[in-house]
């Protein structure tokens, strides 16, 4: 897998994207199991799946980047 790209689609919401290509000899059941494993263990969701004329599957997955806001406490 390549290094994930980060993109803000709207203010305060950022997504991390990752793209990979699977060869044509990989079965549909393997691709399904692989995507389920990514979703359950690492929090990825399917963003785009394309099958080219050569049979290669180009898959893009994404996940939200959750940023914590710093709390400001006043000391009295």
TrEMBL record:
<protein>
    <submittedName>
        <fullName>DUF5703 family protein</fullName>
    </submittedName>
</protein>
<dbReference type="InterPro" id="IPR043758">
    <property type="entry name" value="DUF5703"/>
</dbReference>
<dbReference type="Pfam" id="PF18963">
    <property type="entry name" value="DUF5703"/>
</dbReference>
